[in-house]
Every structure is written in structure tokens, then in C-alpha cells.
Amino acid sequence: MTRHGDSLGRAEKTLRASAPHALLEVVQSTLATDFAATAVELLLADYRLSMLQPVTELPHTATPLPIRTTTAGRAFTAQHVLLEPGPDAEGIVILLPVTVRGDRLGILRAQLPATPTDDEQDALAALATMLGHELIVAERDTDLYLQARRRERLSLAAEMQWQLLPGRGCARAEYSLGGQLEPAYTIGGDNFDWSTSAEYLTVTVSNGMGQGIEAALLTNLAISALRNARRAGLDIADQACLADQALYAQYGGTQHVATLLMRFEVASGRVGVIDAGSPRVLRLRDGLVELIEFEAQLPLGMFDSTDYREQFFQVEPGDRLVIVSDGVHAAQAPTGSEYGMTNLDLAILTSSNLPASEAARAIITELLDYHEDTDLLDDAVVVCIDWNNPRGD
């Protein structure tokens, strides 16, 4: 085993044995001992994906870095290892993406005495990925990393919705996807979910009625019911039926959840769809954006024992699908003008060269810019899916 391989092996064992809140200390020790690093920071992306927040003993005790205008932000956005001169032109600062299976967590930043070799960069990148996996596990047992992501306090409804998410990105050879919620710190009833297996990718976008805690409770019940049915091995039509029954049993038709369910057959690109409400699907193919229309069915929980019917369409290699809630396509600016499909189409085209996770964030950013930095009047969800050729031909 190489020297760097020995270093990574030791770091992995130490990370797994360390206290959940002490992961950064292990990485700092490894980088100081094996790479002569003099300063090491972990920067985690905030909920809005606008800032990289330093992990410190107490939240908000160090200055965050804007993602749009810093080298660390560019490394996060592009998901590439980047180098920049050290403070006072001493040494080199290396910026390493901390990402787990397509879910972008942040950046590991280290000051080194000299430019690392390619082998050293590979070892450092592997250490950052290793740290990412340990962060996901550690979040079960400590609030440190969740606190570090917050630029402000979350509302209780937002706390519930963020904890309900599977992540903000996922990547496999066949596809990559990313999602974003806004307003990030006060989100109420909108949510998204996904699950992958060898045969299928299942994606759900939901828009619950109302605002605040009542909307969050409603959506939580809907997502939990859909997961319960999915994990029982049922198809998406039966998933919708059982979730519909659960919501109607609880609310008697007074509350409902507009929901889009999609199940992608990985081997063929055939997609089954249940369109039970307001979320819309737009396809970017060969430079053209097209709204994919389905037979509209009733939102979940509106009536007792609704019968849901699955529809189908085909995705091709190179397709990008963008799923948006009505808080995006029907949003209104402070002037009263509707954001509309024209602006949405333009945002999709403008972000077409970005990876799926970054494109979802960019589309939300365009929506926020349209609102002139005022609060959105409704929750907004964007989920972006890039479909690759599973056979490689």
C-alpha cells in the first residue's frame, strides 16, 4: 500500500471510532501529519445553497463565504478540486468538494506548504469524500453539522420539511438529480422525495395545502404514507391510492396534497406517472423546452377511495426533466406580474450547461431574483433530473 493509502486507511479507522462532533479534528490531524497542512476548515452549504458556513464549536462564530463569488463557491458549484494562493502568498490553499453520491454537502479547505502532486490531490479528494460519508452518519447523533448549515433559525415547519428530505442530490451512472426548496428557512407544505434501486428510480414532488405547521404535518403524512406503500413493494398507482386513503381518513377531504409521482425504469427509460395535482414536468431536449402534459387526476386526500391510473412516457439519453411546484410556475413578483412559463423556460435554458443539482439551485435563484429579494408568497420546489444512456451506446 502507498504512503497515501496508509494515511487514508488510518484516517478512515479514526473517523469511524471518533465522537460524532469530532470528525473535523480527525481530518485536521491527518492533514497536519501527512500533508503538512497548517490550517483546515470544513465549510457546509447552507439551506439556501447561497453560503458556505464554517463548522465551529458554536454556530455562526466564523464568517461564511458566498457561493457565487468565491473560489470555494466555484469548487462547490463545479464539483472540482481547485487551488488558490495561500494568505500573503504563502503556500497553496486546496478546496475539496465534500459530496456523497451526488449530494453536495460542502467544501474541505486546507492550506498546504506547496502545490500538491496529482497523487496527493487524489488522496486529499478521497479523504474529503470519506469525511462526507461520516458526516451523514454523524448527523444522527449530533446537531453540530445541522447547526452549522443555518444562517438563521428555521421555522418549525421548515425543520420538519428539511428532516423529511432524502437529501438534495443523487447520482448514478444512469442519471443524476438534485432538488431545492424555497423559502429555505420558512418552507411550509412543499416537498420532494426519491428512492433508487437496481430497477427503478422513484421521484415524488408534493404541494400540501395551507401554510406553516399545518401544511408541514399534512405533507409529512402524505410522504410517510407514500414511502410506506413504496417500501411494501407496491406500484405508484397503488402508492397513490393508499396515501389518498390515509389522508382522507385523517382529514375527511378538508385537506389534500397535490402530488406528482414518477417511476423511471432504469434499463429502458420508460417512465410511469401519476399526475395528482399542480406540479409540472418540463423536458429540455436538443435545446428546446417542452411542457409534458398528463391526464390530470385528483389531489391525494380530496375524496374517498380515488382510483389512480398510471400514464407513461419515454426519456432518452441527454434529456433533462425539470419538475416544479406551482410556487414556481405560478409565482407572482411584488409588482403583481406572474413569473410564468416563459421566464421558467428561459431559466431552464440558461442553466442547461450546469449539473442537475446546480441547475435546480440556479432556477430557484432566478426565481428569487425575479422577486427582487422579497419573500416568496408561496413555497417553491425545483427538482432536476438528467437522464444518461444506461447502456453507454
From TrEMBL:
Family matches, as InterPro entries: Bact_Sigma-Reg, PPM-type-like_dom_sf, PPM-type_phosphatase-like_dom
What's the domain of life for this entry?
Answer: Bacteria
**Location of the PPM-type phosphatase domain:** 172-387
What start and end residues bound the annotated signal peptide? none
- One Pfam family cited in the UniProt record for this chain: SpoIIE
In alphabetical order, the GO MF annotations are: phosphatase activity
Tagged with keyword Hydrolase: yes
Q: Which UniProt keywords apply?
A: Hydrolase
Q: What is this protein called?
A: Serine/threonine-protein phosphatase
State the organism of origin: Nocardia yunnanensis
